[in-house]
Amino acid sequence: MTVAIGDAAPTITLPDAAEGSEHDLADALKSGPALIGIYKSSCEASKTMFRMLEQIRQAYAEKGLTVWGVAQDSPNVTRSFIRRLELNFPILVEGDEYPVSREYAIDATPTVFLIDQSGNVAWQGMGFQKAAVEELSGKIAELLGTGEVDVFEGVEDIPGWVPG
């Protein structure tokens, strides 16, 4: 069963695909909540969700939100994914044994977790649905104590949902 809202988020310490730098969830939570998206690059829903995670990063990063992707792909495939989607947040490579996917017990990709500063899951969702992304934006704003941002503003060709 997937890690649920209210559960303590399992720890994450993984290298990123770009530089190999280690990223640690406990360290990230010191500056604010964290948004973690687990994906597979061949998944159409993942591609759409990660375009929106970039929009969310742009809207909320300066207010204290950390955004990371966790790739179920090789470092080379992951770097290509980053370039194609023009992502500007760290994408961590979990490796062949999928430790994060297993620890978070995900059922499909993409699966996204919003983790509050106390280390608990505040929101989680699977797949891509526009309404869920709007709900996520509202929850992020609530955790940051700021106004909600319309993360779809200026973004064209995003459907209401994308099959995985």
Give the topology, please:
Blueprint: E1 13-15, E2 22-24, H1 25-28, E3 34-39, H2 44-60, E4 66-71, H3 75-85, E5 91-93, H4 99-103, E6 111-115, E7 121-126, E8 128-129, H5 130-144, E9 161-162
Parallel strand pairs: 3-4, 4-5
Antiparallel strand pairs: 1-2, 3-6, 6-7, 8-9
Helix pairs in contact: 2-5
Describe this structure in words.
A five-stranded mixed beta sheet has the order 5-4-3-6-7. It has a two-stranded antiparallel ribbon with strand order 1-2. Strands 8-9 form a two-stranded antiparallel ribbon. 32% of the residues lie in helices and 22% in strands. The chain has five helices and nine strands, in the order ββαβαβαβαβββαβ. The model has no long low-confidence stretch (mean pLDDT 96). Helix 2 packs parallel to helix 5. The radius of gyration is 14 Å and the shape is globular. With 164 residues, the chain is an alpha/beta fold. Strand 4, helix 3 and strand 5 form a beta-alpha-beta unit. The chain has one domain: 3-Layer(aba) Sandwich (Glutaredoxin).
Structure summarized in a few sentences:
It is built from 5 helices and 9 strands. It has helices spanning 25-28, 44-60, 75-85, 99-103, 130-144, and strands at residues 13-15, 22-24, 34-39, 66-71, 91-93, 111-115, 121-126, 128-129, 161-162.
CATH homologous superfamily heading: Glutaredoxin
Helix content: 25-40%
Number of helices: 5
The second-level CATH architecture is 3-Layer(aba) Sandwich
- Please outline the major beta sheet: 5 strands, mixed
Q: Which structural class do you get from the secondary structure elements?
A: alpha/beta
In CATH, the topology is named Glutaredoxin
Work out the strand percent.
15-25%
Radius of gyration: 14 Å
- Give the strand tally: 9
Number of domains: 1
Q: How widely separated are the two ends?
A: 19 Å
Please state the average pLDDT score.
96
Tell me, what is the CATH class?
A: Alpha Beta
Poorly predicted runs of 5 or more residues: none
Strand order of the largest sheet: 5-4-3-6-7
Tell me the series of helices and strands, N- to C-terminal.
EEHEHEHEHEEEHE
